[in-house]
Specification:
Length: 146
């Protein structure tokens, strides 16, 4: 599939890199098909690029790369639409944002992807995870949840 993007120009996307978000994402409910792209210069960074809106690309990272003890508890009802039978089929990423001079990740609302079916959903995690966890801060490590 060839898509046009405002950030990356015209690119060819392999079908294996396409993800479907049946409910869209909060605030982007109309964007249901996304391409998961690797960043050309930073191996820690990925991009969720809307296949229908050239101007919409979300930076995503693995939360454990920056918060090694991060464990997410998600109510089963949040995961039912993804039909995840085995947790090894799930990939968790979080959205990276720039807030002024700070980079933050949203640990409260991770994106869960069923790798087998290539479907995803942003969920709200149980527990006290921050919406804006600042990267590179000298904060104490987060408490682990079971």
């Amino acid at each position: 599939m060839r898509i046009t993007t405002s950030r990356f120009g015209r690119i060819d996307v392999d079908d294996a890199d396409l993800l479907t978000f049946p409910a869209g994402l909060p605030g982007l409910e109309g964007c249901r098909e996304w391409a998961l792209l690797a960043d050309a210069t930073n191996d820690a960074l990925g991009w969720l690029q809307s296949t229908h809106r050239p101007d919409v690309a979300l930076a995503v990272v693995s939360p454990r790369r920056f918060v090694p003890g991060y464990q997410v508890r998600i109510p089963r009802s949040e995961l039912l639409p993804l039909a995840i039978d085995d947790l090894r089929e799930a990939q968790v990423v979080v959205i990276l944002s720039r807030n002024g001079n700070r980079l933050t990740i949203n640990l409260k609302a991770p994106i869960v992807i069923n790798l087998a079916t290539r479907t995803g959903r942003q969920v709200v995690a149980s527990g006290e995870h921050p919406l804006q966890f600042e990267l590179g801060s000298d904060r104490p490590p987060m408490k682990q949840s079971a």
